[in-house]
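Lab notebook, bench 4. The sequencing result for the construct came back, and we need a structural model before the next group meeting so we can plan mutations. Quick request posted to the team channel:

Model the 3D structure of this chain.
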Amino acid sequence: MSTVGKNIKKIRSVKKISQQAFADSFNITRASIGSYEEGRADPKIGLVMEIANKFNISVERLLNNEITINDISGFSRYESSIDKGKALNPDGNQRLIPFVSANNCSVYLENLSSEQYLSFIPRFELPNFEHKKARAFEVVGNDMWHMEQGYPPKSTLVCVHANFQKPQLLKELATYVFILREKVLIRQLVFGQKQIIARAINPFFEDVILDMNEVIELWEAHSLIAPVKPINAYLLTRKASANLH
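Done. Here's the predicted structure in C-alpha cell form:
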C-alpha cells in the first residue's frame, strides 16, 4: 500500500467515513478508493490536492508521511514552508534538491508532467551544491552494490539533469538514473554497437538494452549519501596505541 493510500484509509477511519461517502465527496467511484487503499493504484495529484485541502493537511505530508490522528484532528503543530502549502521550484533550487523515495516512486512516475506535484515533492538541502536542475533518488535493491562497492541499498543518490537526446554528451561507465514509463532504473551506461546498455555493478544482474525513445528523464549521478558503518572504537584505540610504540 502506498503512503497516500494508507493516509486515505486513516482519514476515513478517524473521521468514520465509508468508502462510498468518501468517494461521493470527491466525485469518484468507491472502487477507486478501494484501489488506492489497497495499493493497486495511486490517485492523481489533483485529487490529492482536493483531499489535502478538505482535511487541512499539507499535500507534501499526505503524499510522503504517514499522518497522525493529530494531523487529521487539526491540532496545531510546527509547520515548515512546505507544510504551509508554499510551492517550490519543480527543478529544485540549487542546494534545495527534490527527493524521490522508494515509497513514492510510483506517484512520481505518474505525475512527471505535473508541475503541481513536483512543486510539493519533499526535498533537502545539500551544502556546496549549485546545480539548478537536480533530483535525489533512494537506492533500492542490490543491483548497484557488490563486494562492498557501489551504491548500497537505502542510500540516496543525488543527480544532475542529463540530456538523453544528445547521446554524444553521455559518459560511458558513468552512473545514470533512467526514468522509464513504469520504473526508475539506476545503472552504469555502456555503449554497445548501435545500442545503449544499462549495466549493474552486481554481476548477478543482467544487462538491460535500452530504447532511448522509452526514456522520459535522465539524471547523472553526482553525489552519494550513504549510512556510515559503526567503527569499533576499541580496535581503533588499539591500533593507535600500537602505532605509538
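The CA atoms of residues 98 and 135 lie 5 Å apart.
Will bring this to the meeting.
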